[in-house]
Specification:
Helix content of chain A is 78%, strand content 0%. By secondary structure, chain A is mainly α. Chain A has one domain (2-255). In chain A, helix 5 packs antiparallel against helix 7 and helix 8 runs antiparallel to helix 10. Chain B folds into 2 domains: 3-233, P-loop containing nucleotide triphosphate hydrolases (Rossmann fold); 234-264, no CATH class. In chain B, 42% of the residues are buried. The chains are: A mainly alpha, B alpha/beta.
């Protein structure tokens, strides 16, 4: 029955537009980054493109594999926090929006498995998007002929991107909890956006290692210089956030009123 | 009556939302194989009671026993014997009728063939490959009923099962529920705010008001009381008007091809 819970969670995505929307969103990340690289590689091109060229120059980026690769981790890890929150809010929130939550929660299945099944779908979904973003990023990077690529650098880019993606995933049970608590998408998406902004603010205060939503930006260098070594305490914070969020979702589904 | 003949039992069932007493000390007993009509106005506490029966909300106080098992948080195994429809017809709009039922089959452990059977049973064959989001309200209700009956439950809990159905559909569902109880021994607990629906179907009727059970009796007893009440309270002209309403309903059913299924109303009040 547990396997069937996970299988049905995947089956519910058939003909849903949301996976395609999320795919389009993640594809825009590396493509946008590549556009900036293409512009700043050639100062004459930047000058001829007016505002867009000026903006690209203002980023202070260099058109190298090192800079391009580091921003791939930012796009997938930090910016993806919002996209992943959208995915999780959809997976949990659609049951309330479509009115199917009652049907689900009155089935002869331990409700814990519904929570874990949806989180498993989110993890698989996010893994696929991350891999697509990495492949897209590398293909565009090679097509642009950016200088400085080495296999070691490539491996480092992949590792950093996957670690950032995994760290983002640890934050989403909190989004799931807010969705089932409020029984809607909106509060969860508002929370995700708020935490992304707050994470950026906290990232500049020296407390980034202790605030869950600052850790991914800290890992990727989104809110300052890339942290060479992420302290073990940050991994502990992320782990506790994951466990706390997952526990809250399970308790909410099992013990709270689900009218 | 032996305890094993009691399918649903509640003692002092109470649910408060702040100062509002949605259900207030409800004592119910539903027996195996009967159709129990839970009748009450909108807001009387019917839906809250049904949600507590299904474990969706927790009682403020009191106990619920279903198939001899106390209903409590996290204990879902007794739900294997229960089919239900809670208030509104719902389904995954991006999935077809067949796919929606297949999800239910997987989560209840019903055999594969149950999906096609349920589709045939509820007259959904022409819509089997249509997305649920594109169904009419009546067909969504049929889909919800198919979902409720898919795994051959021993108890069916239905909240306003006639919602959204046209008169012919109401008659079909009536027949279906009657057949479930008569041929398969399924216990049916149905709520409605429509007297005529409950009167057509129920073996016993409980009337709930402000969260309390104000009357409970077999249908015939309640019908006799109703006839006496009507005779003593209303004028002959008013009674004639009521009969006309019943006649109009049957005429409509005859003209729309459902005459064969039309049933006399309770106690023969409208012939």
């Amino acid at each position: 029955m547990r396997r069937q819970v996970v299988v049905t969670e995947f089956l519910k995505l058939r003909r849903s537009a949301v996976p395609w929307v999320s795919l389009a969103a993640i594809l825009c990340g590396p493509a946008g980054m590549a556009l900036f690289m293409w512009i700043i590689r050639d100062p004459a091109r930047a000058a001829s493109l007016g505002l867009l060229g000026t903006k690209a120059n203002l980023t202070g980026l260099e058109a190298t594999w090192t800079a391009y690769g580091s921003y791939l981790a930012v796009i997938v890890g930090a910016s993806g926090m919002l996209l992943l929150a959208f995915i999780v809010a959809y997976l949990f929130g659609r049951e309330y929006a479509d009115g199917t939550a009652r049907n689900l929660l009155a089935l002869p299945v331990d409700r814990t498995w519904f929570a874990l099944g949806k989180l498993a779908v989110a993890a698989a979904w996010w893994l696929v998007l991350t891999l697509i973003a990495i492949v897209e990023g590398f293909l565009i990077g090679w097509a642009l002929g950016l200088p400085g690529y080495t296999p070691d650098l490539g491996l480092k880019v992949i590792t950093n991107t996957v670690v950032a993606a995994a760290a983002s995933l640890l934050l989403v049970p909190m989004i799931a909890w807010i969705t089932v608590w409020t029984r809607s998408y909106l509060a969860a998406l508002g929370f995700a956006l708020g935490m992304l902004l707050l994470g950026d603010v906290v990232g500049h205060t020296g407390w980034a290692a202790w605030f869950p939503w600052s850790i991914v930006p800290m890992m990727t260098g989104m809110s300052g210089p890339v942290s060479a070594v992420v302290p073990w305490s940050s991994y502990l914070v992320l782990g506790l956030t994951f466990l706390g969020g997952t526990g809250a979702v399970v308790l909410q589904l099992r013990y709270a009123d689900n009218p | 009556m032996p305890a094993s003949d009691t399918v649903i039992s509640t003692q002092g069932l109470t649910k408060h939302y702040g100062r509002v007493r949605a259900v207030d000390g409800l004592d119910l007993e539903v027996r195996r194989g009967e159709i129990y009509g839970f009748l009450g106005r909108n807001g009387a506490g019917k839906t809250t009671t049904i949600r507590m029966l299904l474990g969706l909300i927790r009682p403020t106080s009191g106990t619920i026993t279903v198939f001899g098992r106390t209903v409590g948080a996290g204990r879902q195994d007794w739900l294997r014997k229960v089919g239900f429809l809670v208030e509104t017809a719902t389904a995954y709009p991006n999935l077809t009728v067949t796919e929606n039922l297949d999800l239910q089959r997987r989560l209840t452990g019903a055999p594969r063939a149950a999906v096609a059977e349920a589709i045939d049973w509820l007259g959904l064959a022409p819509y089997a490959d249509r997305r649920a989001g594109r169904l009419s309200l009546g067909n969504k209700q049929r889909l919800s009923l198919a979902r409720a009956l898919l795994h051959a439950p021993e108890l069916v809990v239905l909240d306003e099962p006639a919602n959204g159905l046209d008169p012919a559909g109401i008659v079909e569902v009536r027949e279906l529920l009657r057949g479930l109880a008569r041929d398969r021994g399924v216990t049916v607990f149905m709520s409605s705010h429509l007297l005529v629906e409950v009167a057509h179907l129920a073996d016993r009727i409980g009337i709930v008001e402000a969260g309390r059970l104000v009357e409970e009796a077999p249908r015939d007893v309640l019908a006799a009381r109703a006839r006496d009440f009507v005779r003593d309270t209303f004028t002959a002209a008013e009674r004639e008007e009521a009969l006309l309403t019943g006649d109009l309903e049957r005429y409509f059913l005859a003209r729309t091809g459902a005459a064969a299924k039309a049933e006399p109303t309770v106690g023969g009040a409208a012939r």
